[in-house]
Amino acid sequence: MTAAVVVGVGASLPQRVVTNAELAGYLDTSDEWIRSRTGIGARRWVDPGVSTGDLATRAGELALRSAGVGRVDAVVVATTTPDRLCPATAPEVATRLGLTGISAHDVNAVCTGFLYGLSSAVGLIAAGNAESVLMIGAETFSTIIDPKDRGTAVIFADGAGALVLRAGAPDEPGAVGPLVLGSDGGLADLIQIPAGGSRQRSSGAAAEPEDYYFRMRGREVYRHAVERMASSAMQALGRAGLTMSDIDKFVPHQANARISAAVGERLGLQERQTVSNVECVGNTAAASIGILLAEATAAGGIRAGQRLLLTAFGGGLTWGATTLVWPEVTAHIAAPPRAAIAAAS
């Protein structure tokens, strides 16, 4: 059976570093409050005029460079913040990468978007519709959060992470294992933007300005996130014929530090097994796992030959998980220098 094999990884983060101190200057919050509840010390927000497509294009370019290829057969962009409601962002990203004419489409599963996008890429390869796919998770959440909402403004951030996948064998390093995906639309209102879609527009009712911003019912989301991330991770292990003792590194969606810790504890993992960058990057939604893979690879936190467990949870509600043995790959990253981040913090 044909598998989708990871052969390249890249990430792009905005240059602007937004510290907790900056947010505390106009929100009823503090560095201690933010860190104690989220584990976040700083995040990246785009400068005016920079779009999701800009970050996606840069991350895709770097992933292609990492893979040592100039062309793929398809581009998938997972995002909650497309450049426009219509058309999709992926075709323009493909053209900007010199890939006009290939298959290109968007996926929206909010924070589970990277795994849903990965599933789409795996499916294209398994069906024989593509020999290689560039899969990008990209977000500019700073454009949809209410700057006055302490519950979301301190958490969400911008960035893009990308993988290049090619057709290969299931036993190769980098081969993506069975993917477990799920959803529950009955809880769609826990994570939403109320206005701007066809439901609000067709109602004829005028929307309030704040209805165009992202909303999240944090306490309820926390409970569902921990349960769904842990259960889907166990299902993914079972489908791959693995147990938790086979896992070297746990790579969760960077929702916040408390959720990652709670899921890791429920799975019986040691703290040292969990990979994290939420303190310096924040929650970049569909981009978070891709950025984390790139940064951890570059920093040596993930090494070739290690078996990874990936899991995520997002609006929809949606959730998912998968496993893979990390390949020998060099990560390429465009991001603010760490020295600048430390100085800003």
UniProtKB/TrEMBL annotation:
Top EC class of this enzyme: transferase
Domain Beta-ketoacyl-[acyl-carrier-protein] synthase III C-terminal: from-to ranges: 238-326
GO annotations of cellular component type: cytoplasm
ACP-binding as annotated region, ranges: 254-258
UniProt-annotated location(s): Cytoplasm
CDD domains from the UniProt entry: KAS_III
The protein's Enzyme Commission number: 2.3.1.180
Keywords in alphabetical order: Acyltransferase, Cytoplasm, Fatty acid biosynthesis, Fatty acid metabolism, Lipid biosynthesis, Lipid metabolism, Multifunctional enzyme, Transferase
Residues of the active site: 111, 253, 283
GO biological process: fatty acid biosynthetic process; secondary metabolite biosynthetic process
Location of the Beta-ketoacyl-[acyl-carrier-protein] synthase III N-terminal domain: 106-185
Main location: cytoplasm
One MF term in the entry's GO annotations: 3-oxoacyl-[acyl-carrier-protein] synthase activity
Function statement: Catalyzes the condensation reaction of fatty acid synthesis by the addition to an acyl acceptor of two carbons from malonyl-ACP. Catalyzes the first condensation reaction which initiates fatty acid synthesis and may therefore play a role in governing the total rate of fatty acid production. Possesses both acetoacetyl-ACP synthase and acetyl transacylase activities. Its substrate specificity determines the biosynthesis of branched-chain and/or straight-chain of fatty acids.
Subunit structure: Homodimer.
UniProt domain comment: The last Arg residue of the ACP-binding site is essential for the weak association between ACP/AcpP and FabH.
NCBIfam families listed in its UniProt record: fabH, PRK09352.1
Family statement drawn from the similarity comment of this UniProt entry: Belongs to the thiolase-like superfamily. FabH family.
Protein name, per record: Beta-ketoacyl-[acyl-carrier-protein] synthase III
Organism: Actinokineospora iranica
